[in-house]
Design goal:
Layout (H helix, E strand, L loop, with lengths): L42 H38 L5 E15 L4 E13 L6 E13 L2 E8 L2 E3 L4 E14 L2 H12 L2 E16 L2 E18 L7 E3 L4 E2 L1 E3 L1
Antiparallel strand pairs: 1-2, 1-9, 1-10, 2-6, 3-4, 3-5, 3-7, 7-8, 8-9, 8-11
């Protein structure tokens, strides 16, 4: 009770505020600043960038690798300079040559001597599955096989092919041509070789290729006294191709 005669206001009831404090008593007392939102890394943005960088570096590495390999192959090619072998017919000997106009048959025994040269300075050559044919006026007369052989760098090898024709049939126009040539004392033959060649140079991987050799215009003189025919005009270089 106030002695001055004035009655003090009554205190608020205890249940007037839910927390026992008047409104605004602690609205910002414990948190003077706004709480920042948590930061999250945007992985969906960085992942495509990383993939693009990876692809860019990968392509750059592949291009560099291809350029280096190409440069190495070019340098090796300049050093090795692979070249085809050289085939030369040194001699041809023909025995027991005969032709029948009535039956259109040709007989004879040819011995052809080749000189094979490997022109490569740093490469070895080997030959296998060698087949050889002899023709006259584009008509095949005989076929034979040759044994395989090897050649070192800058080396020469002598190879002989023996052909035997026993009553080999030819067309009528070919018979007429052979008879006309024989009357002049010279008959021209052609020899063809097919072989599987292998090129080898040190650690460099070997390379295999089928080569074809064509030896044309082999003019063989046939004496009238029945002696063996011989190649005229000297040795003949053959054409070699893959």
């Amino acid at each position: 009770m106030n002695t001055s005669g004035h009655q003090l206001p009554a205190p608020p009831p205890s249940g007037a505020y839910s927390d026992g404090y008047p409104p605004g008593a602690h609205s910002n007392a414990a948190y003077p600043y706004a709480v920042p939102h948590p930061q999250y890394t945007n992985y969906q943005y960085h992942a495509p960038v990383r993939r693009a960088n990876f692809l860019r570096y990968f392509l750059l590495a592949m291009i560099t690798f291809i350029i280096i390999i190409g440069a190495i192959l070019f340098i090796v090619w300049l050093v090795l300079r692979p070249r085809l072998p050289v085939f030369v017919v040194e001699s041809v000997t023909l025995n027991n040559f005969s032709i029948s106009t009535s039956s259109q048959q040709v007989s004879g025994h040819w011995l052809v001597r080749f000189q094979v040269r490997n022109p490569n300075q740093n490469m070895k050559l080997s030959y296998a599955d060698i087949e050889s044919y002899i023709y006259c006026n584009s008509e095949p007369l005989s076929r034979t096989r040759l044994p395989p052989f090897n050649q070192g760098a800058r080396s020469q090898t002598v190879v002989q092919a023996s052909f035997v024709a026993m009553d080999s049939f030819v067309d009528g126009w070919a018979v007429s041509g052979i008879i006309a040539e024989r009357a002049s004392g010279v008959v021209r033959f052609q020899v063809r070789l097919i072989a599987l060649a292998q090129f080898k140079a040190g650690w460099w991987p070997e390379r295999r290729a089928s080569i074809q050799v064509l030896c044309g215009d082999l003019a063989v003189g046939l004496p009238s006294n029945g002696e063996a025919g011989k190649l005229t005009g000297g040795a003949r270089e053959c054409r070699v191709g893959l």
